[in-house]
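Q: Predict the assembly, please.
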Amino acid sequence: MARAGTTARKTRNQMEKRQAIFEAALDVFSEKGLRGATLEQVAKAAGLSKQNVVYYFNGKDQIYAELLESLLQKWVQPLHDLSAEGDPLDEILTYVSRKVQMSRNMPRESRLFATEILHGAPRLGDVLPTDLKTLVDDKAAIIQGWMDAGKLAPLDPHHLIFSIWSMTQHYADFDVQVRSVLGPERSATRFEDAEAFIKDMLIRTLQP
Amino acid sequence: MARAGTTARKTRNQMEKRQAIFEAALDVFSEKGLRGATLEQVAKAAGLSKQNVVYYFNGKDQIYAELLESLLQKWVQPLHDLSAEGDPLDEILTYVSRKVQMSRNMPRESRLFATEILHGAPRLGDVLPTDLKTLVDDKAAIIQGWMDAGKLAPLDPHHLIFSIWSMTQHYADFDVQVRSVLGPERSATRFEDAEAFIKDMLIRTLQP
DNA sequence: AAAAATGTTGACCGATCGTGCAGAAATCAT
DNA sequence: ATGATTTCTGCACGATCGGTCAACATTTTT
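A: Predicted assembly structure:
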């Protein structure tokens, strides 16, 4: 017997297969959702049989859960990197840049989290009210400090962060709508235009 | 034979039952998605039997399709009401108000559309590239006119509309996250705070 | 090479779900 | 009241899906 999924990772082969399944699962789950996707679709996308997928993981839900967990850190990294040491406006604009880049380069991850939260985030457990809240509160305090020091216009830091999340992720999550409304020509530069627009908006807003 | 669903509506009874099913479907579909929800859940929420639901509609997909269609107009109405006649900033801030109100009072509708678009909007057909694009282009032209007249700061009108969509709908679609991050106390006033923040941001941004 | 561990597949099961249909039950028209 | 129409239910079929298990194949270890 094997049980590749339960204990610590072993061989390189196992790591590679698990990674292939993660990749396929990200493709399928982000497009169809957890309930809308089937194990066979994931297996086919990974180039494996359904039973073989179950061999490496212990079921559909576990793939989804581990996938979500493995992506969480990477997802909040840009906010983590927002530093009190740098120039206030620079730090925030850099954060916007990285978030727009993530919408452009990691739209599947964005949609995966969006779908999860949209449906009540039952599988994110209590990560939201603990880890994420702590992180946001921390960074909001930094921003508040900048505002108190007169380096930024006074605004609610939490809602400022929400606005950046929403505006940037919008271009990944609602890409179909964005492209439909912009039309084929203007869609080509939608990410550059979005980044310029959001930065412009924030510069005007945050200027003390 | 009956076929309550295919032809024009008849009795008051049919209208009421269909409305009850719509209400139930909005509840269930917005929470679990089309594929994640079952007919029996919709039926139970509507106080009917599964087969009886099929009697009034001709299947699960038809309920979803008609529900989406019946909500579409209501959903874009605020943008439709944005008028070239009014004061530029007033018109835009009023639009924001109405969008925040919709996030507060119609979160299910917001999540339903969000899920649909997130998954590629296959059932919105070509409404996005035609009707919605036309509407947005129309309103963007009005805003552009205001900017050309020096009444608003020059910005990309399309991305301005996107930013309003994303920021306002964020508080409906990602409500779990917003409440988790804000904590119980601050969550109580999240919609008022959001409206004030977004308006503040837009005022600073759009001031010529 | 033999044995052990790891990897893969085919056959299959139980459960769920959407749907069709005959007919009962209720309501309405005359 | 009688017949027609509408409304509702019981029954059940076919399809799909997640998951199991034993057998087979491959790789690794000794």
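Chain B touches chain A through 53 residues (CB under 8 Å). The radius of gyration of chain B is 20 Å.
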